[in-house]
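Recap for those who missed Tuesday's class. We walked through two folding examples back to back. For each one, the amino acid string is listed first and its predicted structure tokens come directly after. Nothing is annotated here on purpose, so try labeling regions yourself before you check the end of the notes.
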Amino acid sequence: MYKGLLDYIGELERRGELLRVAAAVSPRFEIAEITDRMAKSEGGGKALLFENTGTEFPVLTNMMGSDERMALALGVERLDDIARRIGDLLGEALTPKGSLMDKLRALPLLAEVSRWFPQQVSGRGACQHTVYRGEDVDLQRLPMLQSWECDGGAFVTLPMVHTVDPDTGVRNVGMYRMQRFDARTTGMHWHVHKTGARHYDAYKRAGRRMPVVVTLGGDPVYTYAATAPMPDNMDEYLLAGFLRRRPVRLVKALTCDIYIPEDCDFVLEGYVDPSEAKVMEGDFGDHTGFYSLKDLYPLFHVTALTHRRDAVYPATVVGIPPQEDAYIAKATEKIFLAPIRLAVQPEVEDLWMPTAGTAHNLAVVSIDKRYGGQAHKVAQALWGAGQMMFNKYLVVTSAATPIRSYGALAALLRRADLRSCIIRSEGILDVLDHATATCGFGGKMALDLTETDLCADVIAVTLPSEAHPAGGIELYDARHAEDLGLVVLYAAESRPDSVDAAKYLDDNGFRNVKYAVVFDYQAAGTMRDEDLLWLAAANTDPRRDVLLTDGGTLIVDARSKRPGVGANPARFPNVVMSSQQTIRLVDGRWEEYGLGPRLESPSRRYRKLWLSDRAEW
């Protein structure tokens, strides 16, 4: 594997996966706009190394933003190679050993596993070459990105946050964004469901200050491991050791007993005091494609800052998909499929989380169907398993369905008996889910397509020769009427508080419509199919916004929800995008960057969705 981030950068360059930008660029808005254009280009574009950032450190973005770079980051040619290794390992480890010879054959497996465990080494690591303590610490020296026009400030976006359970001594490495407040403090964005928050609560009960160490960079496998949905109380560096086929070498932090990878680029040491009042953090343009709005989070005090001699600052840009995190999620699908089968649902054959679902909103799973009601069992089990508990919409198919094939899924959805295949529930949602009125809790819905008859006749949708506004609906788009039975509706430009899609369909003579999804008028004509799927999943709570009419049409209200009206959330965020000023700046400087033909700004496509001049409506 890699000796550090520079080693990985060298490999990217050798393979033609890296572009260097020598021109001076600003970490405030400019780097994010350039990266957003690159990330949304074909195949995820290239990794970008900004060499002149106004600080002493270069910035690396989009480093795992393609299938090829994601595999390279994990040291393989194809991600399927890792999935196969895990499957073989679990199969060998769990096969009953009946004879002495079988048990002896398993000894090499045990020896291999023992080589993955992290190793604590004495002395300082490369990450501790340059040291600043106390008042010499200045976080302004780091090129933290302020990505979007309504962000509350500059953020650390790829931190590996190390905490230790005060009761068990078990380490956790998680990824939680950190807003820089001043030279020596940041926010610590610990959601209530995350392990970091659980450790924080434990220190609060004990009345003790909580040591925290944040690292950035090093072997990119560390960054991936910090995002992985590892079981609680399981060391992320064990996963990293497995992926890199050698143990992670750890050195002791300078000011506490937390151990960190010796080859990282930056280390921020400090503490969180649970007796201290939480501070207002945000707004932040998040991976959901919407702003996560201001809220109270713990304050992280940085008492020491160290870095490598040749440090490179790694950052990611999140926002409307696709972004770099889509490829990280794709790796997780493959790597954790075998453990899901083992620990949660042995009948699961495949799992797919479409990019438009921003990891949690949408999932499709195929199962080995053997008995009635099995899809209900799988849905409920997945909704209670690890980070799958955040899933909002789930489609369950039989094992014969290639779930990544649009044609195969469309054929099932077109023929689904919606009166019998809908599974409704309530449960935990991501704290970042803005559509629910009860933070972190809301509706869930699954479609059981395991018994859908692909030979069933399809009744064609009848469309009107001319449609007139009715029920607060202005326009319709029937491009998917034939393949999905879907009609897309656009509400009036005035953004009415409520609409009656069924009235619009009935008054205009639509017949046999299976699905109708209502969007804001402002989305008409500017959104691609992927964008509309993203909006539909993000802007809805299934318990409030999805209904099945007596005529068998599933109607989804995917409009922006006016805050405080009816069962709507009290706050509703804006879509994430660059300002017009930033777009013009990057357009005007594009030739200076040396990145080839100009890529258009994706933000232009979403400008009409803007609700106000703030992060929220």
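Example two. Treat it independently of the first, because the proteins are unrelated.
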Amino acid sequence: MIKITFPDGSQREYAKGTTAYQVAESISPRLAADSLAASVNGATVDMSRAIDEDAEIKFFKWDDAEGKHAFWHTSSHLLAEALESLYPGIKFGIGPAIENGFYYDVDSPVPITEADLPAIEKKMQELARGKERLVRSEVSKEEALKTFTEKNDQYKVELIRDLEDGTISFYTNGSFTDLCRGPHIPDTGFIKALKLTSVAGAYWRGNEKNKMLTRIYGISFPKKSMLDEYLAMIEEAKKRDHRKLGKDLELFMFSQRVGQGLPMWLPKGAELRDRLERFLRKIQKDYGYQQVITPHIGNKDLYVTSGHYAKYGKDSFQPIHTPFEGEEYLLKPMNCPHHCEIYRSKPRSYKDLPVRLAEFGTVYRYEQSGELHGLTRVRSFTQDDAHMFVRPDQLLEEFEKVIDIVLYIFRTLKFDNYTAQISLRDPNNKEKYIGSDENWEKAEAAIIKAAADKGLKTVVETGEAAFYGPKLDFMVKDALGRSWQLGTIQVDYNLPERFDLTYKGADDKQHRPIMIHRAPFGSMERFVAVLLEHTAGKFPLWLTPDQAVILPISEKFNDYAAEVARELERRDVRVQIDERNEKIGRKIRDNELKRIPFLLIVGEKEEAERKVSVRVQGEGDKGSMGIAEFADYLSSLVKAEMEADKAE
């Protein structure tokens, strides 16, 4: 007999070899029917997996992340089975579950395009109705190699060669067998609704030197209504796509002549970004930060000292060679080494700390072209970076102050749904990181305590730390429920050692400061992209590029429109004039599409009364107001926005 412990601490005894499904069924037939996978002693497994020793068990349903992962993993195998049936000779790369759905990378004997997806979907639905079981088998490395060599699938053969004998398993559903660790849902009958969403190219193993495979993306659900809701959300997401909105609102652009992944901010976008920067600069000033500016390049030795070159050199632009023999520079991949040099530029006393250095610093990373995506994945981006150099007794207080800054920014910009992810190092893979165990343990303990002190909703992710220290990453859900990583705070004992940073203590001896890395926005580019999609381009009044547009009914009122604009600009209202020779109805429609909050219509009556007719975006007419009256009204709305955020 074996002893099974449940999440509530209760225990039951079962015969050795009892499956997870049988355990669930002994509790409730409904639990067994709804469970997609199980956790046995911390490992997620199939419901059909036999349990041979005492174990702690937990069951995962659709609402659990692990349940969705197993569901979508099985869906990728269902896709592969359909493809193998429809495209004889097709070869398979990898087919994982992802955050929303699944994909499979394939090498097809004939091109597969989006036009082919409905036929593939139909085949998948047919196979799903067969309720095919997912059968696991343990195989030797020799047997695995033989199987896929006979199938002439060089991709699976390459993967198997990297595996250790005794760790290899296959899964079979219907006529399809795949190299796979699992876990999977019990059978394909759980998949009631599915949609193949797109086709893309992907280099084998992410290497540009390898063959380009066809990547087929899909999504699946246990109910058709869930698929319908998801597809409606996708349509809304298309409308909110920051690349489309950025073009419509004239915020930013890209140029092939300038280079891939190198965004250029247009006047309205530059103004928007400047307002965000001024907003954060004001907060930073209140918290005692000092602004610095560092070069866009640095000597290669700087990044060798910091450790960034060893970790990220391959992802950086190639070194810049100067006429001086042996001298090499890099486009700046990080701001922190520069800030370390600023700190060590003069002697520091314990009375000087904390030293808080802030910079909107532009950095450069050579992202692969296939991974570039609008403003969210670029090769040039500006971090709202800051580094605090603190004494050990100041660490917790300073870290918690940064949390306060991040939460204030989220409140102001209406990011209300977020989780703080405590990103720790992988204790089983310490060679990925620099620094002593003692320093890592102290840094991780400080982050965990700060998050607890602030009452944050947290999750712990092992192995997600930076190479030099653990992090507190803020995972924000936008208006469509999509998760984004915005804002990060990191504790670092290692760079101060590498740069030999010191301060003279009260004991007249030299001590090592602790470094806190901090970027509440993360990067200006990514933050603006997420903000665009979260708000659908309808920014808060204090931030929006154009607060109002003046619409003359005809050309003869253009002079009065210009007079109104001058008066409003004098009162700090951001305003433009639509002087096109178009009917007023067309002007209203066009400017509402530009998400401008207030439309000010001027004609004969308004000119005579020295007023404007006010129309509010999405709400309609609000009557007429004097010019000064409207400016005061707008100012009061902006003030109310900011005061509400402070009150929260």
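Answers for example two:
The radius of gyration is 29 Å.
The longest helix spans residues 65-86.
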